[in-house]
Amino acid sequence: MPKSQYIFICFFILIYYSFSYADDVNNKFSGYENSLIEKKEAQYNNEDINNFNKDLLDEEILEDDFLNDSLINDDLLSDKDLSDSLSNKAYDPIEPINRAFFYFNDKVYIYVFTPVSKGYVKITPKFARIGINNFFSNLASPLRVLNNLLQGKIKNAGAESGKFFVNTFLGFLGFIDSARVFEKLNPPKEDLGQTFGKWGIGQGPYLVIPFLGPSTLRDSAGMVGEFYIDPVFYAYDLNSREKLIMDGTKNINSLPSRMDLYKTLKDSALDPYTAAKNAYIQIREEQTKK
Amino acid sequence: MIKKFFFAIALIFIFSLNCYALSPLESIKKPTENIISILKSDKYKTLTPDLREEQWNEIWNVVKDSFDFKIISRLAIGKYWNSFSSDEQIEFQKLFAELLANTYINKVQENFKNQQVTYIDEKIAQNKAEVLVHVALENKPVPIIYRMLDNNGWLIFDVKIEGMSMIKNYRSQFDEYLFKKSPKDLITALQSKISQLREERKKPVN
After folding, report:
1. Are A219 and A202 in contact (CB under 8 A)?
2. Which residues of chain B lie closer than 8 angstroms to A52, CB-CB?
3. pLDDT tens for residues A142-193?
């Protein structure tokens, strides 16, 4: 049996779950008292709202140093605060090497990537850029399904497959993100780095990868792994060269937004290296938690 | 990730007025709408450097009363706060506010394209609150959480974008800086960063 058929069978099984997921979410929200949420919910991703509420109800957040009374009342700083700022520090044993690569990347971004992305924006209309971005995001959907399964998130795997199904067949092979209007079909994006995190593997040393930017040992391993476990890779019998060309197109298309992001970070920071490191670690920790 | 970062952060500065007796969500909403109307106003349709400066000041006047810069500074410095003399503390507070304003108001001015802002929810726990807002960017909403304290009206002390706390981010930088250098050096570094950002504003927006 060709591999592509195999993938499709798996995929239809998962569709079944996406419907059971939708039911579940409906039940959960029908009893929800906050009228504000009911009004807005239809437009947006349930996950965000769920996490928001969960966060606040969490006892932990009340003990968080930012909300710590002793800190706010001008007392001496508590031990908790001290330990927090220490634990916040990323493990960065090869900082001098990382800083060198960060400096290198900075020059590459300023003198090569930014002009390239400006040129690309000039010759490509916005709808095309969004369409291409949607297309690649949809193509990565099977991989996210796989990661959801590896993390044991069966319902999210179902939702992700549902999204893939809707976008592939109703969204012109994924160029239009039509699943966006079904808020149940927008689970958080999972990748292999997050899967490793779920399995209890820590982020490991912080790394700055030439051209690509911030990462950690765990996430780099995840990135390399994803190259090999991507179901699309097998479904279409792509060779590594074809896959690299695809990834290249994807990266050029997302370059303008990433250059904007980098510039903002650099402008806002006193020390861009530390700011980028902290932002990366914080965002990845949050994503792994979801 | 397009523009989500700057715009999200930019919204930090989209508030105004003394929000006494307003709910946390209202005290985010009112100034935000106010700023959006300044950004959309016909007066600033073509931004010459002078007009840009004027618009910047107008936005800053709206924004500055929504933040508790005293607590923001304190949290951003963390454990080193007591190594600042009281003059240095006041100076730092002033400069840090200016740094944030010069960074993020600039970004809003450059990148505002009438993005839709949706006020989703608020949660209050005694004198603390969190407000969740979604900003629609291209094809996906970016969640922003404002964390606020009740101090004769709700004031913002931290903003979380996509799970990243701004205060924690600045703290990691100041921590590292102050580990090697003195508060005085930090103040000088902030001053030069601010004047650099001011210069940038004088360049035409492309």
Report:
1. no
2. 120-121, 123, 130, 132, 143, 145
3. 999 999 999 999 999 999 999 999 999 888 888 988 887 787 888 889 999 9
Contact check, Cβ <8 Å, A267/B2 = no
| DSSP conformation letters of A7-73 | HHHHHHHHHHHHHHHHHHHHHHHHT---HHHHHHHTTS-HHHHHHHHHHHH-HHHHHSGGG-HHHHT
What distance lies between CA B99 and its chain's CA centroid? 9
For A286, how many CA atoms within 13 A lie in the half-sphere containing its CB? 18
What total of structural domains would you count in chain A?
1
- Cross-chain residue pair A77–B189, CB shorter than 8 Å: no
pTM for the full model? 0.76
Residues of B in contact with A180 (CB under 8 A): 139-140
Q: Write out the DSSP string of A84-108.
A: HHHHTS---TTHHHHHHHHHHHHHH
For residue A219, the surrounding DSSP H or E stretch is helix A217-229
Of the candidates A100, A77, A48, the one whose C-alpha atom is nearest the C-alpha of residue A207 is A100
| Predicted complex ipTM exceeds 0.85 | no
Q: Which residue does chain B place closest to A262, by CA atoms?
A: B5
For B38-71, the pLDDT digits (tens) are: 988 888 887 788 888 888 999 999 998 899 998 8
User: What angle do helix axes A240-268 and A114-123 make, rounded to 10 degrees?
Assistant: 110
Distance CA A251, CA B1 (A): 12
Domain extent at residue A131: 3-289
How far apart CA A176 and CA A161 sit, in angstroms, is: 16
Cα B131-A188-B26 angle, rounded to 5 deg:
10
B143-152 confidence digits (pLDDT tens): 899 998 887 8
* Locus of tokens 């969490």: A58
Listed residue (A290, A13, A2) closest to A161, CA to CA: A13
Alpha-carbon distance B51 to nearest alpha carbon in chain A (angstroms): 22
Q: Is B126 exposed, middle or buried (0-12, 13-18, 19+ CB in 10 A)?
A: exposed
Share of chain A above pLDDT 90, in %: 36
